[in-house]
Every structure is written in structure tokens, then in C-alpha cells.
Amino acid sequence: MYLRPATAADLPFLIEMMLEACNWDGTPWFDEAKVRSEDQVWRYLDGWPRNGDFGVIAELGGSPAGATWGRLLTRNRAGYGYIADDVPELTLGVSPAFRRRGVARAVLTELVAQARAAAYTRLSLSVDPGNPARTLYESLGFRKVGVVGTSDTMLLEL
């Protein structure tokens, strides 16, 4: 597995990974048009990469397999897992063909390292209680700190 920083050229793949995150249970709640038209979702990708954005792409056999990225959102344009203006909120997705191969753990571990190197002290995310990724997040130290709608907000202290 090859891990590399996410770049502006990766936006189409990040959109694919957002779709995987939004449609995690296989229900097609979102397509690309809906991701782009719903501001609360699009704000995670709008203008990628902005100053301060950071992310990781995993490749297997030369193909993009998964990604995670962090972005600072603000109180007046908060994300689903918003904690504070200085806490990056992350998004993670893995292509179905590459699941159960350690891709999610690899990209998330690298993203946490990037956050620490950038001197962030916390990371947040939002996850549905039934999403199997929750187990991964908990194994890496994320803990539930709130609920927004039907999803849990989780926080990792770095």
C-alpha cells in the first residue's frame, strides 16, 4: 500500500470517497449532484485544497483505494462533527473493492500523524452509530462527545 498526500488533482476521488462515507450502508442517499448541491456536505470539499487542508490517499496496485482528509470549518458554517473553529473535522472513505485490507486504518493513522505534525491538538468526526467504521475510530482513541441528528460526534485528543 502506498500512502501519499491528497492534492488538488484528487478532488474527483475525494468526491467518490465522500459518496462512500455518505452512503456507508449501501443506501444511495447521495450522488455527486446532491453532494455538490447540499452545502452542509459540499463544505468538506468546496475549494479543495484550501489553506490548512490536509489529507491522505491510499493506493493499491496503482489504483486509488481510500482517502481521509481534514478541514477546519467554522461555527457559522459548521460540519456534522463540528467541535470548534481550531479543530479539523475529518472525512474518510474506502472504495468497496478495497475494503477489509487495512486501508481505512492506514490512511487515518497517517492523517493523525499529519495533524500532530501541524500542531493540532484535536480531531473530530461524525459517524452513524451503526457504521462499522466507528470501531476503527474507537480503536484509535476517538470518543463520543455529542450527538447531531442521528450521528455521533467523536473527538480525538492528540
Report a brief summary of the structure:
By secondary structure, the protein is an alpha+beta fold.
Descriptive labels:
single chain; 158 residues; alpha+beta; 7 strands; 28% helix
Describe the structure.
The chain is α+β, with helices and mostly antiparallel strands. It has five helices and seven strands. The strands form two sheets. It has a four-stranded antiparallel beta sheet with strand order 1-2-3-4, with helices on both faces. Strand 2 and strand 3 (63-71) form a beta hairpin. The radius of gyration is 14 Å and the shape is globular. The model has no long low-confidence stretch (mean pLDDT 97).
Q: How many DSSP-defined strands?
A: 7
Shape: globular
Low-confidence stretches: none
Helix content: 25-40%
Which strands sit side by side, in order, in the main sheet? 1-2-3-4
Strand content: 25-35%
Distance between the termini: 25 Å
Q: H/E order of the elements? A: EHHHEEEHEHEE
Radius of gyration: 14 Å
The major beta sheet can be summarized as: 4 strands, antiparallel
- Total helix count? 5
Mean pLDDT: 97
Class by alpha and beta content: alpha+beta
Helices and strands in order:
Elements: E1 2-5, H1 11-22, H2 32-37, H3 39-42, E2 54-60, E3 63-71, E4 89-94, H4 103-117, E5 122-127, H5 133-139, E6 143-148, E7 151-157
Antiparallel strand pairs: 1-2, 2-3, 3-4, 5-7, 6-7
